[in-house]
Amino acid sequence: VVAFSAPQPFTPQEDTTTPQNVQPSKSSEVRISDIIDMKVYNDELYLLTTDKYKSAGIATIYKYVDEKTPPVLLYRPQIGQYKDRLDDLYNLEVYNGELYAGGPLGIFKFDKEKNTFEEFTTATYEFDHATEAGVGFTLIKEIQGKLYAIVTYVVKDATSDYETTITNLVTLEGNTWKLVAPSKKVITGLHGIESLEYYSGTFFVGGYQGGVTKLYTDPTTKETYWETVQTEEPYDLDRFILLKSYKGKLYACGETSEYKKGNTYSMNSDEVWTLELNQKKTCKSINEAKGKLYIGTEDYTSSPSQYQETKKYNPTQQPPNLSIRSLYTYD
Q: Which of 23, 132, 163, 298 sits most deeply, having the most CB atoms within 10 A of its CB?
């Protein structure tokens, strides 16, 4: 894959239709630090970023214009606006003709008339959870015409008030989020979900740590349950695992047990793993484009001007990580 250069700081384009929930700021206070995700919607490209606003990283959504014009700012929550949750959104997704953003901040839906994103609060939950703790979203994804989400919530024991934090997969049916598997069959063995993929008739998730987990179905009882996919050599992925179904195989890339080193593997329907690529760097994104599979990696080389300027005054200053967090085909 050919890596594009890191974007330079810019001032968002002024727009007469001021997005709701956007905190006024001077142009010098805005700096895009990471483009987390991109999505094409109605033939236009949308960018989900973590902006540096008053030294804080806040989830922000822009609409791309062109190479010479700064993107249009659509949405940025005010600092402290949601005191009960993190100011994070992790990905964009198109579902049923609408554009959504999801993450610990919640689910937000693009309002075309107001030209901004508004919180999607009309959906209810058809599973037990502690209402005061709420439901946290890790990612959202459209699969075969349905919207799915990885969620985290708290369940209290009825007799002891003992609390258990649960991670599970839900789907939106009408205006209700429902569990894909029974509540007692939760996703275990993973610390932080990085990816969700559908392959060979079932769901797979990849974790920040802990490998790949699959939603199995017992052939006799037809009960569903989550279980870690067994691995053996040459498989050597330890964390940051991203998944992609491509040409009859499930591909997994991430970081190996050796720090900052990465490989890409494929798994067939018999759950046999094959080493496909030793890219030598940690995988940060994987996507199909124009019939080919692309891997975006993290590099530990110097970035442009800011690092060079800082190094003048601090010779021991280490270069920042440069990574391709999102790959998408546009125009």
A: 298
How far is 34 from 53, CA to CA, in rounded Å? 13
DSSP string, 104-122: TTEEEEEETTTTEEEE---
Q: Count of residues for the chain?
A: 331
| Neighbouring residues of 255: CB distance < 8 A, sequence distance ≥ 6 | 237, 238, 239, 240, 261, 262, 282, 283
Secondary structure element (H or E) that encloses residue 228, with its range? strand 224-228
Q: 């250069």: which residue's tokens?
A: 5
pLDDT value of residue 323? 60
Give the pLDDT band (50/70/90) at residue 169: very high
The DSSP secondary-structure symbol of 238 reads -
pLDDT in tens, 111-153: 999 999 998 888 888 888 877 667 888 899 999 999 999 998 8
d(CA 6, CA 10): 12
Please state the separation of Cα 180 from the chain's center in Å.
20
- Strand 176-179 vs strand 124-125: parallel, antiparallel, or unpaired? parallel
The 10 Å Cβ neighbour count of residue 95 is: 17
> What is the per-residue DSSP string for 138-193?
EEEEEETTEEEEEEEEEEE-TTT--EEEEEEEEEEETTEEEESS-TTS---S-SSE
Q: In whole angstroms, what is the distance from residue 243 CA to residue 299 CA?
A: 20
- The kind and range of the H/E element at 93 are strand 91-95
Cα–Cα dist 222/216, whole Å? 9
pLDDT of residue 97: 95
Query: Are the C-beta atoms of 244 and 251 separated by less than 8 Å?
Result: yes
pLDDT tens profile 216-237: 988 898 888 888 887 776 778 8
What's the pTM value of the predicted model, to 2 decimals? Answer: 0.79
